[in-house]
Amino acid sequence: MLVEPEQLRQPPVIESDREQLIRAVIEEIRPNLQRDGGDCQLVGTEGSKIMVKLTGACVFCKLSSVTLESIQARLVERLGEFVRLIPVAGVANARH
User: Fold this and answer.
1) 39 — phi, psi (to 5°)?
2) What's the CA gap between 54 and 43, in Å, rounded?
3) In order along the chain (96 residues), what is the average pLDDT of each group of 10 residues?
4) 40 exposed, middle or buried (CB, 10 Å; 0-12, 13-18, 19+)?
5) How far is CA 94 from CA 7, 12, 42, in A?
6) Could you give the C-alpha distances from 16 to 13, 22, 25, 33, 66, in angstroms and in order?
7) For 85, how many CA atoms within 13 A lie in the half-sphere containing its CB?
8) 49-56 and 38-46 as β-strands: parallel, antiparallel, unpaired?
């Protein structure tokens, strides 16, 4: 059996309560987006900025800005603070 040296072990990634709440809000909306062939994934957070990646049908949808506004409004309501939802291109599993 191989044992990793202590210095090579990665500490477990612990999400803050805030990030868990952000992910929960996105998960609430995700089934509706997926039903229409799209999706939204959390890319990362940086202060009051929340970066998300729209995929699938959401990329070219004329109503994607309405979708983003809706998600942002729900986040502001649930977090109790003003946040700005920013759509980004690129890898959706990046962490900030």
Assistant:
1) -165, 165
2) 10
3) 52 73 94 94 94 92 92 95 90 48
4) buried
5) 23, 16, 9
6) 10, 10, 14, 25, 28
7) 24
8) antiparallel
φ, ψ at 44 (rounded to 5°): 175, 175
Show the tokens assigned to 63.
Answer: 């109503």
Provide the whole-model pTM. 0.74
User: Which are the contacts of 91, defined by CB distance < 8 A and separation ≥ 6?
Assistant: 43, 53
Is the CB of residue 29 less than 8 Å from the CB of residue 40? yes
C-alpha 38: how far from chain center: 14
Categorise residue 31: left if φ over 0, alpha if ψ from -120 to 50, beta otherwise: alpha
